[in-house]
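Lab notebook: predicted structure, single chain.

Context: the supervisor wants predicted structures on file for every construct in the current expression panel, including those that have not yet been purified. This is the next one on the list. No modifications to the sequence; it matches the entry in the shared construct table.
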Amino acid sequence: MAARGAAASVLAAAVLWGTIGTAQELGAPDAAPPTVAALRSLAGGALLVVVVVAARRWHQLVAVLRHTPGPFAVAAVAITTFQLGYFAGIRLGGVAIGTLVAIGSSPAFAGSFAWALGRPPGVRWVVGTAATVAGAAALLLGGGAAGTTPLGLVASLLAGASFATYALASKRLLERGMAGIPVMAAVFTTSGLVLLPAVVVADATWIATPPGAAAVAWMAVAGTAAAYTLFARGLDGVDAPTATTLSLAEPLTAALLAVTVLGERLVGWSAVGAGLLTVGLVVVAVLPGTPGRPARSRPG
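Prediction complete. Output recorded below exactly as produced.
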């Protein structure tokens, strides 16, 4: 896959992810974050398993579990931790700021992890990431941090580190020849099963309401199955640090939805922050050059 096509796939995934926080607040404003994360993972993972089985590719699902247990386990644990921190950060700090801190911190974590593994991301990534992180910080200064709590910031930072870990582990799975959709199916189904006790012990009656059911359906279909399939396709052509930087389209989307749909306020520096985010994304996604090392096989 060409680098620009891969970048476009990651950007599309990030836009879909950016709708998750708004969907949660509209459909399940009082639901416990672990319950929302569990239902999203279970429903999204089950949908991906159906796609794999319908395509008669169940053997690729088995291959993920049998031949790459280490990276698979890291990816499953990381995405589970990410969702817990992400939904908790949104609940404690608001959709705009929770998403900004979680996804805005992930490129720095991913770049540091890649550097430690001997795979430095490169100058263009540094320039683009600096612009996007500065944009996220400007958005944070735009008046949306008033309701943020220290615990919310910690949860969001944990989510950022976990998402970076997930991206690196998923990249490793693709480099080892695993197909993208089976990888996502295995990872999210496992995550959902790990989080299943949260559904059993918490109040999940909201799922029976039309807004609650619609929220879970959207998070499963658009925010998980479609978005992470696009993300896996994108990882076939860009490295993990680049992918996490491109994922900063998520907080931009979340901030716009938080303002226009939920009535949250981002003022003052918000326009500057949005502009810097856009510039950084263009630097990473559009300028010539193929970031990172391509995977050895394409996900399906």
